[in-house]
Amino acid sequence: MIQRTVRLLACLLVVVLLAACGERKETGLENKTANGLVLDAYKHKDYPLLLSIADSLNKARAISETQSYYWSGYASDRMGKKRTAEYYWKKALSEVKDFGNGEEVSYYAKTVSHLANLLNLKGDYDGSLKEAINAAEKLEELGCDTTTDYVNLLVFIGCGQARFPRMEDASKKSFERAYEKHLERINASPTESTYKGAIAGVVNMAYSCNATHQYQEAHAMKNW
Question: CB pairs under 8 A, 24+ apart, for 141-149?
């Protein structure tokens, strides 16, 4: 507790300094420092601190509102506050205005991927499907359809489709496309991160097939 308090005070001091430095666009230093504060709390899995930092940096205008609400949602989700996480992630999506900004697009993709997963897990399959389809189409339009977040959206689309009558074929196609995308990412960059993403994707697809009694499809995924 003492260590967390000291770290929080140190972070708040930096936030004050960031605000005193004026517009971060002038040097870029402030934004880099702000992101460093966020990532440090994230890497230490200190979610109460992450929540505080995201809010403080937002008030100091050291990070965008989209970024702030994304991390607030992430921290809330990790602390088991699912409704609060949903609120923050929806707020984050509402703040995305500039799809020409690479960082905003990146946080848009992260946010909607987490939101679609949260809605799917709580049983709001229609809501999850709508969020995932809209976002996937937007990312395709922007040429941002090679990231983990995009492939995750394909998985959540398949999971949502599997829950509705007469959409089994559509679900299977979504899963197959997600699998192909995972293979493309692994071939392009065979890193620990891409392998972990692929494994998580296959697990989610197999779980969805089991939950909707598509046992043959789930068994087939073991051989992927």
Answer: 142/99, 142/105, 144/105, 144/109, 145/181, 146/181, 146/184, 146/185, 146/188, 147/106, 147/109, 148/185, 148/193, 148/194, 148/197, 149/109, 149/110, 149/112, 149/113
Q: What is the pTM of this model?
A: 0.77
CA atoms within 13 A on the CB side of 192: 0
Q: What is the pLDDT of residues 162-186, one digit of tens each?
A: 888 888 889 889 888 988 888 888 8
Estimate to the nearest angstrom the gap between the alpha carbon of 157 and the chain centroid: 15
Angle at alpha carbon of residue 212, lines to 211 and 216, rounded to 5°: 95
* pLDDT tens digits for range 52-84: 999 999 999 999 999 999 999 999 999 999 999
Closest Cα partner for 148 from 113, 108, 119, 117? 113
Nearby residues of 162 by Cβ (< 8 Å), 6 or more positions away: 168, 171, 208, 209, 211, 212, 214
